[in-house]
Amino acid sequence: MTTPPPSTDRMPFGATRRVSLALVALAALCLWLGDFEISAHDPWQELGRLALGLVRPDFGAVDALGEALLRTVAFAFVGVGVGASAGLLLALCFHRLWVRTGCAFVRAIHELFWALIFLQCFGLHPLTGVLAIAIPYAGIFAKVYAEILDETDPAPARTLPQRTGRLSALLYTRISQAWPHLVSYTAYRLECGLRSSAVLGFVGMPTLGFHLASHFAQGHYAVVGALLLLFYALIASLRLWVRPKLLPFYLLAAPFCLGTGLPILWSNVARFFTQDIVPAPLRNGEGLAGLGPWLGDLLLHQALPGIWNTLLLSQIALVLTGVLAMALFPLISHHFTGRHLTGRLGAGLGHGLLVVLRSTPEYLLAFILLQLWGPSMLPAVVALALHNGGIIAHLVGRRSNQIVLRPDAPRGLERYAYEVAPRVYGPFMALLFYRWEIIMRETAILGILGIATLGFYVDSAIQEIRFDRALVLILITAALNIGVDILARRLRAHLRLRHTINRQSC
């Protein structure tokens, strides 16, 4: 029997190992500087009560459950539909610098930040929730759609008659080739839209998150368990009830299921954009002379502490995400579960665990852990690591199933350490860097829960009706996210991490 040639999946560990060790060392330093104290009176008792609520949920005690589910689905469909339509148009001109820059900016701001902005303009109106989802999703769709269209084969376009119009050429060449990939990614974004829609309830929109927050505050863990199980069922059954033939019906019906909300006062909208967001020194007639001290005070006492804590927390969450992903991916890898009945059962349970982890929004998970453990960085770090670790573990596990091992390959820990892990480490690092900017976005927004990241100061400024300060802090958050995204892309290029990245990791 001939020995198989060396696998091309293996990669040199020189630079990658140095970068990995540097990230771990930096996270260890951040861990020493951070606040991870559990201040709750009896956290394990609270955790046990929540677990009991999941085991014995009380579906009958949930008021307006059907309406909350309907609104959650409706906001997701309308927001994702508008975002996908705008994203496709932007993707066609994504080669222009101003389009790429604008899309990078809007997707760098989290949906909850957009919701907080539009709440000041439109109040608790359905337009607030729709725009909060549609605007950042348009930026994401534009980037990914442009990548998908750029990867199409240019040969069919050369065979068209010379007088073929641009729209016809686009439809019959690039879009026709890319259509399956466009549909697949849009379906994934709909799942993300359901999570975003649920989280909008934490800022007052009538979705599942609103009921979850109110019942958790009252200690009704059986109702909380019912809401969580319904949310997981909604995500898990997405492929069963979202059929291509039914999509036009859903998209037409969804706007009528958003509700009416409070009427929009257009005078408030005009005042917000013409007065409220104008820096106070300019609004009060102090001119540029007063703008410097105002901006310096904002940077010194809010922006810099917020940036420090955001970077601190996201660095720890990034490394912990990587540790969890490398520890959990064997749960769905047939190289470790095997193909026999027991192995398939274990793989099914592992797949279910990863589905729950990646389906639970970080904000929702951090909110639950914050109630159980008290205010500190610990709930945020754990929430970010569990969610993102579940996503990367799922993708790395699927990648590992493509590896063919030699017949005499070792088993157990040696198989993991010497055969599988080295071959998936390149794609794993690429995915980890790909999620870095997303982890940063979520870290900033978790400040709304009371953790002193940039979101905490944004929310405080809004509560104090200082919208000018809130806008500056949101712009700083966007700039920070864009900077981390640029750094991650350069690291991927430096380490030559050119492995195919599943677009669902966007």
Describe the overall structure.
This protein is mainly α and 506 residues long. The protein folds into two domains: 24-56 and 289-506, MetI-like (MetI-like fold, Orthogonal Bundle), CATH 1.10.3720.10; 63-276, Orthogonal Bundle (MetI-like fold), CATH 1.10.3720.10. It is 73% helix and 0% strand. The protein has helices at 14-33, 43-55, 65-92, 97-107, 111-122, 126-150, 155-158, 166-199, 208-217, 221-236, 238-241, 247-253, 266-276, 280-283, 288-328, 334-337, 341-359, 362-373, 377-400, 412-445, 454-463, 467-494. α3 (65-92) packs across α6 (126-150) and α15 (288-328) crosses α21. The longest helix is centred in the middle third of the chain and has 41 residues, at 288-328. The radius of gyration is 24 Å and the shape is globular. Residues 1-12 and 499-506 have low confidence and may be disordered.
Keywords for this structure?
506 residues, mainly alpha, MetI-like fold, globular, disordered C terminus
Give the helices and strands, then pairings.
Elements: H1 14-33, H2 43-55, H3 65-92, H4 97-107, H5 111-122, H6 126-150, H7 155-158, H8 166-199, H9 208-217, H10 221-236, H11 238-241, H12 247-253, H13 266-276, H14 280-283, H15 288-328, H16 334-337, H17 341-359, H18 362-373, H19 377-400, H20 412-445, H21 454-463, H22 467-494
Protein name: ABC transporter permease
Transmembrane segments: 68-92, 112-135, 221-242, 249-266, 307-329, 438-458, 470-488
Membrane topology: Multi-pass membrane protein
